[in-house]
Design a protein that fits this description.
Chain lengths: 88, 160
């Protein structure tokens, strides 16, 4: 099956593309997509613990399965993030 | 032209129009609290020249809707308008405009503060800071809308 991968901010800079098409085996999860990308772009790997993910513009978990045609987004940490209350 | 209460885009922000997007309960409301987030010329000792914002726009909009819904649950009767700007922003320009409207000022203040804290926590929006000598993506922590501890932090800040 074929999915579209969306990358943002520093992740996009590392991969050199904001959108990639990828072929996946049936039963693949978001985590599988990430591991494949991190293999291609080793600089992405350190982000594995801090990214958020989304499927079709809805937040999702790494173990969620993906379907043909899905748009999978990998989101680097945002400026506020968890456990921080920031001033503007 | 009708202004939608929740929006993200490249147009300059207009706080008055955003506030107007909340009209509808004239008479029963007693307060509107507004917030503008501005691009500052310094950050962590760096002289900032300008910022560039980018977002995963459809998810950002859904996140704004979620925040509006959280506000509705926590402060019934309070309503939220929130616009975020993207692209290159110069020093002094507004990156986010928020208006909260309610029967009483306490709820309006709390809802407005809660909204900005939640946007910073969970909206998929990133800023790249261009400063004298280089540029850097500002990365805080993982966006997790289901993290109840983070949500409680935002509520605590709102009610301080």
């Amino acid at each position: 099956m074929r999915v579209t991968v969306r990358l943002f901010a520093r992740l996009r800079d590392i991969a050199g593309a904001s959108e990639l098409a990828r072929e996946l085996a049936p039963g693949a999860t978001i985590g599988d997509v990430w591991r494949q990308l991190a293999g291609e772009f080793p600089e992405l790997a350190p982000y594995g613990r801090s990214i958020s993910t989304a499927v079709n513009a809805d937040y999702a978990r790494m173990d969620q399965g993906v379907s043909d045609g899905d748009e999978i987004a990998f989101l680097p940490p945002v400026s506020g993030g968890t456990h921080k209350v920031l001033k503007f | 032209m009708t202004v939608t209460p929740l929006a993200i885009g490249f147009e300059p922000l207009d706080l008055a129009r955003i506030t107007d997007a909340l009209d509808g309960d004239v008479g029963t409301d007693g307060a509107v609290v507004t917030f503008l987030g501005l691009v500052r010329n310094h950050n962590l000792g760096r002289s900032v020249r300008y910022l560039e914002y980018e977002a995963y726009e459809p998810l950002a909009l859904r996140t704004f809707e979620r925040i509006a819904s959280e506000i509705h649950d926590r402060w019934p009767g309070a309503r939220l308008a929130l616009h975020h700007r993207l692209g290159r922003l110069e020093i002094g320009e507004a990156s986010i405009a928020i208006a909260a409207r309610s029967a009483h000022r306490g709820d309006a203040y709390a809802a407005c503060r809660y909204a900005i804290e939640r946007v910073k926590q969970i909206a998929p929006i990133w800023k790249r800071e261009f400063f004298d000598g280089g540029d850097v993506w500002i990365e805080g922590a993982t966006a997790d809308p289901d993290d109840e501890r983070a949500r409680a932090d935002a509520e605590r800040a709102a009610c301080a």
